């Protein structure tokens, strides 16, 4: 059994004190008021149980001698800050049992901020309260609190410049960056944000733990807020706008007097010095999930902090809704787009080869061959370049892109026509028919592909997905079908395929331009004209697509209403709509007897009654045979 001394707050109820003292087993060596505490009466081998409030506890920690006794805090109605920092249980009996069970009490790190003791946390600016969960409340109250914190994110946010100096191993590092808030704690386990976001956190690791909140757009905060609101679980990685640093000491210089809070108390200053106290107090923490352990210094997302031009842009005005691209990103992307906008020899060769492969695949009614042509097709590059040129009013980029696209179209039509003249086949197979009746679904594919193409171009790490984008939008096959229509002299085929190609082109340009705008590659004022022109062209193309889509819906409705229906002369099977205006339908009638000519006329009338309009009918008879 451990020998110990108990010091209590004299303002506690005398009956409550007496009742608790009687339960103690073993009994304390002495039971004294905290006012009578004299450090010289105790050695480093002694145990002191402290039943005191926050003010008394902080005075104890401040006056603690170099070689003082071991400290154990008991829960007190006014011990809130220290209880949170040490994980003190709500029950005095539980705290006492924990003290009796522990074999050794190691040294406990204390944080000093500008020479003042900090027990729990330092907060500069906004601490991003949406990261916190609610505890000790009902389900609906917790949900209400989460929504309340979430909606607070929809407000103007300003980033403040910070000059940070900190120790990293043997090296001293200097950072000039910006953040909307900084959160500092002496122990990860004592703070919910650090426990949720920093894996393998612990106690008394001789490190100060810092999180800088440095979003580059409001949307990045809001999207994380949505995740936290609906999926409040411990994450294995922290979001990119949060930077974590653990270090033995750090200096934060702001350049102006700003407010900050130490353990919830407001302070003012332009320079904040953080360091661990030289005093090595031995205090019993009561955290269940993690025990005291040594951890190595870590830095997470430091390279993602805003610096240079991005730092200046983010601190010049309120935080933008969408992240602005940096000058470095502009340089890399514009170099790529300018290269793609030019009709190089590689572009011409790939355009010719992809058209040849697509045309042969179309005549052979082979989907795999057509897909191969899509992968090889180089048209996506100049179209994305055209979108950026239109967005930023870059005349040279627009002219080069249009010239390259026009040349690509000519090459595609030329080789498709040549192959059509050589090939004796003149049948509208399924691969060709699929590309002469575009509708709104094709426009949806083009828009999605434009977004994907622009995003893939702006992110080097996902550029490899461009082949998949090319397959999804299928630029060369409709161009080849248009060439087949020219070779046959069939203008319906030519105009239908041309409309599909134009739909893809307009949809990609508009969607890619809008994506580049949202990614911050152009201010809205500069982008207005290009976006308006793109939208007008898209609206012009959409009109026939709406009509085609309506016809497709009408065809599907007719097929659904007729297929499998029983009429007096038999069962209708294999219903196909050949033409909408006038309505031409192909139907197979499954009958159990041979039909006469008069029966065919009656069948036509029966179907007309079902569809509510005159029809042209192509009828196939199937007769059931019974043994």
Distinctive features:
21 strands; alpha+beta; four-stranded parallel sheet; eleven-stranded antiparallel sheet; elongated
Provide an overview of this structure.
- Keywords: Membrane, Transmembrane, Transmembrane helix.
- It comes from Algoriphagus limi.
- Pfam families: DUF389 (PF04087).
- With 627 residues, the protein is an alpha+beta fold.
- The chain contains 20 helices and 21 strands.
- Strands 6, 7, 8, 9, 10, 11, 12, 13, 14, 15 and 17 form an eleven-stranded antiparallel β-sheet that branches.
- Helix 12 runs antiparallel to helix 13, helix 12 crosses helix 19 and helix 17 (476-488) packs antiparallel against helix 18.
- It starts with a strand and ends with a strand.
Mean pLDDT: 83
Major β-sheet annotation: 11 strands, antiparallel
Helix content: 40-55%
Which descriptor suits the 3D outline? elongated
Radius of gyration: 37 Å
Total beta strands: 21
Low-confidence stretches: 130-136, 289-293
- Beta content: 15-25%
Structural class: alpha+beta
What is the first-to-last residue Cα distance?
100 Å
Count, helices? 20
Q: What is the strand and helix layout of this fold?
A:
Layout: E1 5-8, H1 14-23, E2 30-33, E3 47-51, H2 54-63, E4 70-73, H3 81-86, H4 92-101, E5 107-108, E6 111-113, E7 116-118, E8 122-125, H5 139-151, E9 160-168, E10 171-179, E11 181-185, H6 192-197, E12 208-213, H7 218-230, E13 242-247, E14 249-262, E15 265-276, E16 281-282, E17 299-300, H8 308-316, H9 327-340, H10 345-363, H11 367-376, H12 380-392, H13 395-422, H14 430-433, H15 440-458, H16 466-473, H17 476-488, H18 491-518, H19 524-562, E18 566-567, E19 570-579, E20 584-591, H20 597-611, E21 616-623
Parallel strand pairs: 1-2, 1-3, 3-4, 20-21
Antiparallel strand pairs: 5-16, 6-7, 6-15, 8-11, 8-14, 9-10, 9-14, 11-12, 12-13, 13-17, 14-15, 18-19, 19-20
Helix pairs in contact: 5-7, 10-11, 10-13, 10-17, 11-16, 12-13, 12-18, 12-19, 13-17, 15-16, 15-18, 17-18, 18-19
């Amino acid at each position: 059994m451990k020998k110990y001394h108990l010091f209590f707050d004299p303002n506690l109820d005398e009956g409550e004190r007496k009742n608790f003292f009687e339960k103690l087993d073993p009994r304390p060596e002495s039971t004294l008021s905290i006012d009578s505490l004299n450090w010289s009466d105790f050695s480093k081998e002694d145990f002191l149980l402290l039943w005191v409030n926050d003010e008394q506890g902080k005075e104890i920690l401040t006056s603690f001698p170099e070689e003082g006794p071991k400290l154990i805090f008991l829960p007190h109605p006014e011990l809130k800050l220290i209880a949170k920092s040490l994980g003190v249980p709500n029950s005095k009996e539980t705290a006492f049992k924990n003290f009796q069970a522990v074999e050794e009490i190691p040294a406990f790190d204390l944080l000093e901020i500008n020479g003042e003791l900090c027990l729990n946390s330092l907060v500069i600016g906004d601490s991003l309260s949406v990261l916190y969960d609610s505890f000790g409340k009902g389900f609906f109250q917790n949900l209400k609190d989460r929504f309340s914190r979430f909606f607070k994110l929809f407000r103007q946010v300003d980033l403040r410049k910070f000059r940070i100096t900190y120790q990293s191993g043997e090296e001293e590092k200097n950072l000039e960056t910006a953040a909307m808030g900084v959160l500092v704690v002496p122990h990860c386990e004592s703070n919910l944000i650090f426990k949720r976001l920093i894996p393998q956190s612990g106690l008394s690791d001789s490190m100060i733990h810092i999180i800088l909140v440095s979003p580059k757009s409001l949307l990045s905060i809001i999207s994380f807020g949505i995740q936290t609101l609906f999926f409040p679980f411990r994450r294995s990685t922290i979001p990119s706008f949060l930077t974590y640093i653990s270090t033995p000491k750090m200096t934060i210089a702001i350049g102006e007097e700003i407010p900050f809070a130490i353990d919830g108390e407001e302070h003012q200053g332009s320079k904040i010095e953080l360091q661990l106290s030289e005093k090595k107090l031995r205090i019993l923490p009561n955290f269940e999930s993690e025990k005291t352990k040594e951890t190595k210094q870590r830095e997470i997302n430091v390279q993602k902090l805003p610096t240079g031009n991005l730092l200046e842009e983010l601190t010049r005005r309120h935080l933008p809704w969408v992240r602005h691209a940096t000058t470095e990103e502009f340089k890399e992307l514009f170099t790529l787009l300018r290269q793609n906008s030019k009709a190089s020899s590689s572009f011409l060769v790939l355009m010719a080869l992809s058209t040849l492969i697509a045309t042969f695949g179309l005549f052979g009614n082979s989907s795999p061959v057509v897909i191969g042509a899509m992968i090889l097709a180089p048209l996506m590059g100049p179209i994305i370049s055209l979108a950026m040129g239109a967005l930023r009013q870059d005349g040279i980029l627009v002219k080069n892109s249009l010239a390259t696209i026009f040349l690509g179209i000519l090459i595609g039509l030329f080789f498709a026509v040549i192959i059509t003249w050589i090939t004796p086949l003149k049948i509208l197979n399924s691969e060709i028919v699929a590309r002469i009746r575009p509708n709104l679904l094709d426009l949806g594919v083009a828009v999605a592909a434009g977004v994907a193409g622009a995003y893939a171009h702006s992110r080097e790490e996902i550029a490899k997905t461009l082949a998949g984008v090319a397959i999804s939008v299928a630029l060369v096959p409709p161009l080849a079908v248009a060439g087949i229509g020219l070779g046959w002299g069939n203008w319906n085929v030519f105009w239908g395929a041309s409309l599909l190609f134009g739909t893809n082109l307009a949809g990609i340009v508009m969607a890619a331009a809008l994506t580049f705008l949202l990614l911050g590659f152009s201010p809205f004022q500069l982008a207005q004209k290009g976006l308006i022109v793109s939208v007008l062209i898209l609206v012009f193309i959409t009109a026939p697509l709406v009509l085609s889509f309506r016809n497709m819906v009408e065809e599907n409705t007719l097929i659904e209403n007729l297929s499998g229906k029983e009429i007096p002369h038999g069962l209708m099977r294999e219903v196909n709509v050949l033409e909408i205006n006038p309505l031409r339908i192909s139907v197979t009638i499954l009958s159990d007897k041979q039909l006469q000519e008069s029966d065919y006329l009656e069948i036509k009338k029966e179907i007309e009654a079902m569809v509510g309009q005159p029809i042209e009918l192509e009828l196939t008879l199937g007769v059931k045979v019974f043994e």
